[in-house]
Specification:
InterPro entries: UPF0311. With 235 residues, this protein is mostly beta strands. It has three helices and ten strands. It starts with 6 loop residues before the first strand and ends in a 42-residue tail after the last helix.
């Protein structure tokens, strides 16, 4: 399936966490634990089209709900990162952690130095920013897998590797959306050189939502209803 979108490395997220607060929940069957996110970095891969080199600022939190059987954790993390060129981005990720033996050892404080294997933690990242230089991060879909890094005497680090669908596919979709919102077709080179007046192009109202794939175009003249002709009786 050569047409199926491939994945390429996008960036790596490393988050330093402190021991969580067992808040609990009186209205839900799964308990809530709030885990402070005290630092970390977000760095894009050298080959990725969107450059990002940022650090966490302030203190974020990961609001974790454990399933009643404690076999899975539901993540909902919020934080703010600051880039080297002073841009601020809000970052949120949600996901599910399957509690295997390695993950259970981390949360119980019994893990040895090293990293847990990839494959038990999967996340979805979103970004929000008012900085025009990084607005494209709001338009991308990021998914990743995570693991825990443990080093004696230091805080636990959560590490996420985030790939992304190939840029060409996303670029095609963006261009397709732009074409749907175009109000008027641009003049063609032959039209610019011709002495013959160019026929006006009927305007098309912009779509509020993209449609993919694009439906076949119809002649707008065929959609007009014929007005009934009123005949006046001759006197």
């Amino acid at each position: 399936m050569s047409e199926f979108p491939s994945l390429q490395p996008a960036f790596t997220v490393r988050v330093t966490i402190d021991p969580g607060f067992a808040v609990g929940s009186a209205s839900r069957s799964n308990s809530l634990q709030v885990v402070p996110m005290t630092g970390g970095t977000v760095k894009s891969d050298p080959g990725y089209s969107l450059a990002l080199d940022a650090e966490f600022v302030g203190t974020g939190n990961d609001y974790i709900h454990a399933d009643p059987d404690n076999k899975h954790l539901r993540l909902n993390a919020h934080g703010v990162i600051k880039t080297k060129d002073e841009a601020l981005l809000y970052m949120n990720y949600t996901g599910v952690v399957t509690m295997g033996p390695a993950e259970q050892a981390v949360f119980s404080g019994k893990a040895e130095d090293g990293a847990t294997p990839f494959g038990n933690s999967f996340t979805h990242f979103t970004f929000e920013t008012g900085d025009e230089r990084y607005k494209e991060f709001e338009n991308r879909v990021f998914v990743g897998q995570g693991r825990f890094r443990v080093e004696k005497g230091k805080p636990i680090v959560v590490e996420y590797k985030i790939p992304i669908s190939n840029v060409e596919l996303l670029e095609d979709f963006r261009l397709h959306t732009a074409s749907l919102n175009a109000v008027k077709a641009p003049p063609q080179p032959d039209d610019l050189l011709s002495d013959t007046p160019r026929k006006p192009t009927p305007s098309t109202p912009p779509n509020t939502l993209p449609t993919f794939p694009e439906p076949p175009k119809q002649n707008p003249q065929t959609n007009k209803r014929q007005r009934p002709q009123h005949r006046h009786a001759s006197r």
